Amino acid sequence: MPSTHARFSPSAANRRLHCPPSLMLEEQFQDEESAYAAEGTAGHAMAEHLIKKYLKQRTRRPVSDYYSDELLEAVDEYVSFVQGEIEEARRGCKDPVFTVEQRVDVSEYVEGCSGTADMVIVTDSYIHIIDLKLGRGVQVDAERNPQLMIYGLGVLSKAELLYDPKVARLTIFQPRLCHCSTWEITPAELKKWGEEVLRPTGAMGRRVRRRELVPVLQGAEPVPRQGRGVPQAGPDGVPPARPLGR
Question: How is the chain split into domains, by residue range?
Answer without folding.
Answer: 10-21+94-235
